[in-house]
Amino acid sequence: MPACDCPVETAAQTDTEWFIPGAGPTGFGHLLLTGRRQSSMENQRMISLKNLTKVYGQGEESIKVLDNLDIDVAAGEILAVVGPSGAGKSTLAQCINLLERPTSGQIIVNGEDLARLPERKLRVARRRIGTIFQSASLLSRRTAAENIALPLQYLGVTPAETKSRVGELLEREGLSHRATHYPFELSGGQLQRVGIARALALRPAVLLSDEATSGLDPETTRSVVALLRELRDDLDLAVVFITHEMDTVLHVADSAARLHAGRIAEQGSLLELLTDHDSVLGRALQPRLASAQPADGTRAWQVGYDSRSVPADWLQRVSADLGEPVSLLAATIQSINGASTGNATVGLGAPAHLAVAAFARHGLHATPLETGIADLDPKPALHAQEELQWA
Ligand SMILES: Nc1ncnc2c1ncn2[C@@H]1O[C@H](COP(=O)(O)OP(=O)(O)OP(=O)(O)O)[C@@H](O)[C@H]1O
């Protein structure tokens, strides 16, 4: 691979591997999105939302917040839901666990249509759904262990069984040494881990995470993300991960959906989104690169590549085609199920129309990064973030 001589880990067949020179804001420099993605997508549908609509208020005052959503999440899959503020992300989470009743549509969790269940059965079904929030929402006068025990105590589980389950969860989350500490004595990451342990106390099949990593520092975000992925694999959880942090989506999710004004604007696996040049979400998911400056007399281009259609030595080929050097200014590469995809910033001096033609001959999608020639591409990649207007 010509982009960089830094080491790239070898991934298993089904692994997703990211190599990112120049770590992003959350500090992930090199990341391995581990496998089972192919197989998990084939897994049992754990959450199935059909024509989900939620309207708040009535008459002229009414506001349609979710508009006919269809979403599926398999067991062992983490679906990230992203979108601007007010898009309806939290309402979606509240509808999935029936804290909010949908106006119409179905919420099928583990084969049961929650919206149709009588109250008593709904209470039982809700136990299969754990929820974690931005602030872990722990009770301040209870210790970590007592907070985790709460759902078990509400259910009337015996003290011996509660103690055993809480001990198991504390150990799994590496919190045994903090069992008797109160929330004010815990770090942000530890608080979030206690929140996750409490959400798992009743052995749910589904985990809803509403901005659970927002506000955490990069190191803590990384550990919470690693924990969620571990839980997904060990417990075969279906996870809906609501966030506005694109960096985190890249590291935690198997698939992503973009919500806009209550509708799904696009959704797909990370591979599909990252290799779709027309995908707003795919472009926003590309790691932000700290690019070197192009040399005098040359201009910078952003190039998207995909090994299924682009030769590995594309850089040399484009250079030979143009009869001039093409310098590499920044690059990422990710290998997903044996296919390498990524993007690079390169510098070259050829006129724009010749460069576009040369890139296209080698199967590359290229966009000039300078102003004044944007007419070559109606959607320059640099604008993806603004286009999404993340909160
Ligand atoms: N209980 C409610 N009654 C009336 N309107 C509501 C209610 N809850 C939310 N809304 C409205 O629904 C819309 C979507 O809100 P929601 O909190 O789901 O968005 P969000 O995408 O999670 O936003 P953010 O990222 O800012 O948290 C907003 O316009 C909000 O004002």
UniProtKB/TrEMBL annotation:
Q: Which residues does the UniProt record annotate as the domain ABC transporter?
A: 47-286
Keyword Nucleotide-binding in annotation = yes
Q: Report the domain of life of the source organism.
A: Bacteria
Keywords (A to Z) from UniProt? Amino-acid transport, ATP-binding, Cell membrane, Membrane, Nucleotide-binding, Translocase, Transport
Q: Which GO terms describe its molecular function?
A: ATP binding
Question: What is any Pfam family matched here?
Answer: ABC_tran
InterPro entries membership: AAA+_ATPase (IPR003593), ABC_transporter-like_ATP-bd (IPR003439), ABC_transporter-like_CS (IPR017871), MetN_ABC_transporter-like (IPR050086), P-loop_NTPase (IPR027417)
Per the UniProt entry, the signal peptide is none
The protein's matches in PANTHER family, at most eight in alphabetical order, are given as: AMINO ACID IMPORT ATP-BINDING PROTEIN, METHIONINE IMPORT ATP-BINDING PROTEIN METN
Return the protein name. ATP-binding cassette domain-containing protein
